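Subject: sequence -> structure tokens, single chain

Hey, anyone have a minute? Need the predicted structure for the following. Not urgent.
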Amino acid sequence: MHQRKSERGFTLVEIMIVVAIIGLLAAIAIPNLLRSRINSNEGAIKYDLRTFSSANESYRAAVRPLSYADTILTLVTPPAAGVPAYLDTTWDVAVTPSKHGFALANAYAVPGGVPSSVYTLLMAPVSQQDATNTYCVDQSGTIFSTAGGVDPTAGATGCTGGAPILG
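Reply:
Had a minute. Here:
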């Protein structure tokens, strides 16, 4: 006679329970991971806006008559042979049109060649998966952020709208 061995394996119910648990964990973890990515991108942009503001102030201190740079390209281009640029090439909008999920959009108050006492840089999210707030920095060095659903805008006298970020 042939004796039958007991077969071992998982039942369909056991597999369904495991799949349900994995689905539940994913439903909890994925939104938190996406929010972490958004927070990281927005933190990086605030740092970059401070860097941009510092570079523009350094440029203004180095030129006569006192003037802010008329374009981002002015800050990316070395002022003389052997002298480093005020910003690295990741700021070159022709090469890198966005940083950390934000589109670079500068709106200077005056055309090139005219001494400028104003600059603005507006950073708007490329998609809502990358970031949710729009940021703007101007010659005051203050960074403005979306507040109450109102995005800051770049104008002839600096940033308007939104709320200033302290610190």
